[in-house]
Specification:
93 residues; mainly alpha; 0% strand
């Protein structure tokens, strides 16, 4: 029970230097699809980076369907997932 924790001096695995410094890495905040749909503004123009993110495929259609109270069904969901994964394009070629 009485084990004491000592700070172990570590060195750089590449050069062996003991002069190390902790650096906080960047991170991303994970958002659920429902919160992304809720915050999505269909009237705002988007830049190219928006369209490069596969999670945004089908977002506009889902937002509009939700606003109109329409259930697009499981076939639509399956098509969106295929498009997000790139399988839809492969099937078309």
């Amino acid at each position: 029970m009485g084990s004491s924790r000592r700070r172990e001096r570590r060195g750089c695995p590449e050069c062996g230097s003991a002069r190390l410094r902790r650096v906080m890495s960047s991170f991303a905040v994970v958002e659920s699809e429902s919160s992304r749909i809720a915050s999505f503004d269909a009237s705002k123009p988007r830049d190219d980076s928006f369209y490069r993110d596969s999670r945004n495929v089908g977002l506009w259609a889902k937002k509009r369907a939700k606003e109109m109270g329409v259930d697009l069904g499981s076939k639509f969901e399956a098509t969106v997932e295929k498009a997000r994964s790139g399988k839809l394009i492969k099937e078309m070629t």
